[in-house]
Write a structure and sequence with these properties.
heterodimer, A: 543 residues, mainly alpha, 21 helices, 2 strands, 74% helix, B: 618 residues, three-stranded mixed β-sheet, globular
Chain lengths: 543, 618
């Protein structure tokens, strides 16, 4: 087992096997879920480290041909599905493995428990790994659907009515998005006759003998990009396609939100980055400049709209959910800058590093924020912003972690949020796309607008003498997508569940603190990020 | 001139930064906690001072953590300009550390641990700004300074304090996270580096429009912290913070970080020659000149002492910016020397305002007639520092202003010299009434104060007779001062009724704490009166909470500041007026101001400034 090309396969298979093991063991031992998941994810982390070691070390880009069909024929097209691990994939795989393992700690005692939950948890990881590693656009769709279906299950895992509604909404919107993506893939297949990413890029560039010149302006290809981008924007929750996301994040059980918020949208953004940069390639955007302009415009609107919506929220989890809409706007904007015809190689390079850094940073920060929110709600039943009043003193560790992570999100140096913003802003300014540069810089203040609300409640307001029952009533009452607060009957059982423990368990606190520490520590890794991604950048940007 | 690799710049930052966990950890033991605070201040100052001789000889200490991002090093460097700011901030922190302990304990403030921890964080960031070797490192500490000062502004946890905190965050992050970051990125993309001293070459050959844009963004971004108009209004509002904060941070460390940023920008990022070529110096000088005059005029009408001092700070900071923007070596010398000069004087003034607040609960100038009897040493220190502000010889302000005037003439920009002189007159106009009132008037027979009390600042229109009722001043000012000051006029002059109708001071009546600490009894008459006033305050406050009884609220406001019914008590000149924990730092700071005025070279600061100017003009 020394061949590192096995790692991509194992990374996908192991969690699927683990999920099956959870189900089987669950028939006999009802509490076997967590240990099996923990062992599986520890294995995943080991595999991810092995893969990263190989990719960043001696091996470079790894390709595993499933079934070893090879590349017969005059053009050397792949027949089977390829799993590809390049530097970008390795970063994403490591992120998924480590975040999934860490987030599992939050569910140890705080729940949700049960066999189906852990099976879905592992399936979700399998799907995320698949998206990160596949080299085939149709296979990407399959893994996106695995990710989606596992997430729908997780959102509804605690069987509350609002969660079921949120899950259903996510199911409908998410599946529509995936279908749009599939339509785009279909067009692409019609135009080129292949589904392999590397072959697609070559065919679109007009390299094979059977096409006459580049196909970038082919209406089929243009239409395919429109469908693919729209479908992936749904998955990444870009405004105005974000409507599933706040409900899903805020109604999902707290433990599941940590994982979902950290990784699910991230993988959608990763898929968009991957397709835009390595399949369509900057040459496609150069042929039709309006496409990149549309992408950065949508992304900029998402940055502003997401922040504005976040400021208006009254509940902690919804606030952080809308914050993700804004942050993914930044990431997509960075991708848009990277492929924009106005950007030179250096600008594109900066923007791509920025996109990856912000992708990683956001995952860590958002996972930590939801873990801190989970802990504070376990400690004091805090679900609305005003319930946070005085908790900086009551729960100093969780409050501190939330404050550090919030400031990281704002972009206060030296934490990771600043690093991502620095690269993205540098890319935008070097490319001379001034309106986008202005939005990126202004996003600091926009983010501050909602983070400051949280900080002020945590530290500069004394706790209000409210009955805990009242707090929880307000906590679960509104339906996904709506902002109206109305009491409903679905709160009683969840309240009882959350009140069983006395305060946040150590696992939840640990997740929040680890996230805060990692977020700050990663901020010093700018040079390492740039070095690690360098081969990937050289390949896609062709220096 | 050599670069010496050394850990000392890092150590200076770390001394304060490491104090934060220690302060937080010892929150149950106030004496130990405050000891850490003092120790950190002393260590930081010693480390900074230990580098002074070599820096004066032209050497630079440098510490680098390696690449932060490609082409951007995370590095600290103690050069002459950095030393000027670092030495000043760390020296004055030593004074303020003692004063802060006296002040916070005197008022029995809540959340003292958070206060001292955030204070140490602010000083770590300020020294980090001073020693930053490039724009990115400077930006890192600049943002950390904004974050660590926020808890101090919002310290009181009242609606007013939270509003001030929110405004502070908005202003400083717009200035820092948007403008400074944008300017830094632009400089990096134009010059390929952000190291001080290495950017000029790239900027000279860059597109002038972009180079000007970068200068404008950086100047505006630093200008927010330097309280240049029209981005000044956070500063008067931030005066809601405890006085040690107003004194050290909002007269020295934070606002001067903004000024220091402009100094780096003009002297090291662009260098005066390029600033001249781009023609961006004159607009900056014009903004500074406008600010220094307008702020002085607004200060005339402030009745709250700390707000008057805040506008004075806004005005004085613009002296420094003006000196830098004139681009003349003498003017730059004057501007840079004004950094320490103003710091010593303004720190004294704020310390005086704070000690008056702790001892007598008096915040309004109209209530301070005759206070010289009650607080003789304090008011003498106040008078000396105020004289320095106005530029009267033998105090620090004179020396720097002299250089500024000569520089303005040398640069053939006499109009700015006129602005400086007019501002000096205005300084006297807003400081002299305080000094005169304190020593030569008594509460019963005070002159009218038409500027503060009259509508439109004069004898026009109806005005109330009672001299110690500040309510009408707010109305009058919104007519005139409202044009300049954009903040809500209601809270400006009258003590704003707070959420629960009380001041923090009311909740923690300081006279008891101070009396107990000093182990002495207040005289029975005054103590009784004060107690009655406080109880009154509680009950009245509850009424005011309903928003029904404004007048009662005002009536009781009269009682709890200012002299008692029998006028000010007479206290001896031997420190009887307060504790030496606060008086000592006041006398030390005012002594510093005088030393700087009489022997500026021996005080090292002028020498440092000359090293800076020599390097720039070489």
């Amino acid at each position: 087992m020394t061949d590192a090309t096995l790692a991509p396969v194992l990374l996908i298979v192991l969690p699927i096997v683990g999920a099956a093991a959870v189900l089987v063991a669950g028939l006999r031992w009802s509490r076997a879920g967590w240990p099996i998941a923990a062992v599986t994810l520890a294995g995943e982390a080991g595999l991810a480290v092995w893969l990263a070691d190989a990719v960043f070390g001696s091996e470079g880009r790894l390709v595993h041909e499933l079934g070893a069909y090879g590349r017969p024929g005059p053009e050397g097209f792949a027949v089977g599905i390829e799993l590809v691990a390049d530097q970008l994939s390795a970063v994403v795989v490591a992120l998924v493995a480590l975040v999934a393992l860490t987030a599992l700690a939050a569910t140890r005692r705080a729940g949700p428990r049960g066999t189906p939950f852990y099976a879905a948890y592992l399936l979700l990881v399998a799907g995320l790994m698949g998206v990160g590693l596949t080299g085939d656009v149709f296979n990407l769709f399959v893994f996106l659907e695995i990710t989606g279906i596992a997430t729908y299950t997780l959102v509804a895992a605690d069987r509350r009515a609002p969660a079921a509604v949120a899950s259903l909404k996510y199911l409908i919107v998410g599946t529509t998005g995936a279908s749009l993506y599939l339509l785009g893939v279909g067009y692409l297949f019609l135009a080129t006759g292949t589904l392999n990413m590397a072959d697609l890029a070559a065919t679109l560039a007009g390299e094979p003998s059977f096409v006459d010149g580049p196909m970038y302006t082919d209406p089929l290809v243009l239409a395919s990009f429109a469908f693919v981008a729209t479908g992936l924007f749904v998955k990444a929750a870009i405004f105005p396609l974000h409507t599933w996301q706040p409900g899903a994040y805020s109604e999902a059980p707290d433990g599941a939100t940590v994982l979902i918020a950290a990784l699910v949208s991230s993988i959608g953004a990763y898929a968009f980055l991957r397709l835009a940069v390595t399949v369509y390639t900057p040459a496609f955007f150069e042929a039709t400049p309006i496409v990149a302009t549309v992408v950065v415009t949508m992304a900029s609107v998402s940055v502003v709209a997401g922040s504005a919506l976040a400021v208006m929220q009254s509940r902690v989890k919804r606030l952080f959910a809308y914050s993700s809409v804004s942050q993914f706007g930044l990431i997509v904007a960075a991708v848009g800058i990277a492929v924009h015809p106005d950007s030179g190689t250096s600008a594109a390079e900066m923007a791509l590093i920025g996109a990856v850094v912000h992708l990683v940073g956001h995952a860590v920060v958002k996972g930590g924020l939801f873990a801190a929110a989970m802990g504070l709600s376990l400690d004091a039943g805090a679900r609305r912003i005003e319930d946070l009043a005085g908790l900086g003193r009551e729960s100093p560790v969780l409050g501190g972690a939330m404050a550090v992570l919030g400031l990281t999100l704002v972009g206060v140096p030296p934490a990771i949020g600043f690093l991502g913003k620095w690269y993205i802003a540098l890319g935008a300014i070097e490319a001379g796309i001034w309106p986008v540069a202005a939005v990126i810089l202004a996003s600091t203040v926009l983010t501050l607008a909602y983070v400051a609300r949280v900080l002020e409640q945590l530290y500069f307001r004394a706790a209000a003498p409210t009955h805990p029952e009242d707090i929880d009533l307000g906590g679960h009452s509104d339906l996904p997508g709506g902002t109206a607060v109305s009491a409903d009957g679905g709160t009683a059982d969840s309240t009882a569940e959350q009140r069983t423990g006395d305060g946040a368990p150590i696992g939840v606190i640990a997740v929040a603190v680890v996230a805060a520490v990692v977020a700050v520590a990663l901020g010093f890794g700018g040079a390492e990020f740039a070095d690690a991604l360098d081969p990937f950048l050289t390949e896609v940007l062709g220096q | 001139m050599t670069d010496v690799a050394s850990l000392r710049p890092l150590l200076a930052v770390a001394a304060a930064a490491l104090a934060i966990p220690l302060i937080l950890a010892s929150h149950r033991r106030p004496d130990l906690r405050d000891g850490w605070s003092v120790l950190a201040a002393v260590v930081q100052f010693v480390v900074v001072a230990s580098m002074l001789p070599e820096v004066l000889a032209g050497d630079e200490f440098r510490w680098s953590a390696g690449a932060y991002a490609p082409g951007v090093e995370f590095a600290l460097q103690a050069d002459a300009l950095g030393m000027l700011f670092a030495a000043l901030a760390s020296l004055l922190w030593v004074f303020t550390a003692f004063y802060g302990i006296g002040y916070m304990r005197g008022l029995e403030e809540t959340n003292q641990t958070r206060f001292f921890a955030a204070f140490a964080g602010s000083l770590a960031s300020a020294v980090g700004i001073a020693f930053a070797a490039n724009l990115v490192t400077l930006f890192v500490f600049y943002e950390l300074l904004s974050v660590s000062t926020y808890p101090l502004v919002a310290h009181d946890q009242t609606d007013e304090a939270r509003a001030a905190g929110r405004k502070y965050l908005l202003y400083t992050f717009f200035g820092g996270g948007v403008l400074v970051l944008g300017g830094t990125v632009l400089v990096y993309s134009l010059a390929g580096t952000t190291s001080f001293g290495a950017t000029t070459a790239g900027l000279t050959t860059a597109d002038p429009a972009l180079a000007k844009a970068a200068f404008a963004m950086l100047a505006a971004g630093f200008g927010v912290k330097a309280a240049l108009m029209p981005a000044h209004s956070w500063l008067p509002d931030a005066m809601v913070a405890p006085t040690p904060v107003s004194g050290l941070l909002h007269a020295v460390a934070v606002v001067k970080a903004g000024v220091f940023g402009i100094a780096r920008l003009v002297l090291d990022v662009y260098e005066p020659g390029l600033v001249e070529d781009l023609g961006v110096g004159l607009p900056l000088a014009a903004v500074a000149a406008f600010t220094l005059l307008a702020a002085s005029v607004i200060a005339l009408r402030q009745d709250r002492l700390k707000r008057r001092l805040a506008y004075s700070t806004i005005s004085q900071l613009s002296y420094i910016v003006l000196g830098l923007a004139l681009l003349d070596p003498t003017a730059i010398t004057g501007g840079l020397l004004h950094i320490p000069a103003h710091a010593f004087m303004k720190l004294t003034l704020f310390f005086c305002a704070g000690i008056i607040h702790v001892e007598t609960h008096t915040d309004h100038i109209s209530e301070m007639d005759g206070i010289g009897k009650r607080m003789p040493l304090t008011m003498v220190a106040f008078a000396i520092a105020a004289a320095g502000m106005a530029g009267i010889p033998l105090v620090a302000g004179f020396v720097s202003k002299w250089f500024l005037l000569i520089g303005a003439l040398e640069a053939d920009k006499a109009i700015f010299a006129v602005a400086l002189l007019v501002s000096g007159v205005l300084n006297i106009a807003y400081f002299w009434p305080i000094v005169y009132g304190a020593f030569f008037e008594s509460p019963d027979e005070a002159d009218e104060k038409p500027l503060v009390e009259g509508t439109l600042g004069g004898h026009v229109g109806p005005r109330p007779i009672q001299p110690i009722r500040p309510a009408s001043a707010g109305d009058g000012e919104s007519a005139l001062g409202g044009a300049f000051a954009s903040s809500s006029s209601g809270s400006r002059d009258e003590p704003a009724p707070l959420e629960d109708g009380e001041y923090a001071v009311d909740r923690h009546p300081s006279d008891h704490g101070a009396a107990e600490r000093a182990g002495e009894e207040q005289s029975a008459a005054e103590g009784d009166h004060r107690d009655a006033g406080d109880e009154d305050g509680h009950s009245e406050g509850d009424v005011a909470d309903d928003g029904a009884n404004e007048h009662d609220d005002h009536d009781h406001e009269i009682h709890h500041g200012g002299p008692g019914p029998g006028g000010w008590q007479v206290r001896a000149w031997n420190g009887d007026e307060s504790t030496w924990l606060m008086l000592g730092p006041i006398l030390a700071a005012v002594a510093g101001a005088v030393v700087l005025g009489i022997v500026p070279y021996e005080a090292q600061f002028l020498e440092l400034v000359e090293v800076v100017v020599e390097e720039v003009t070489a």
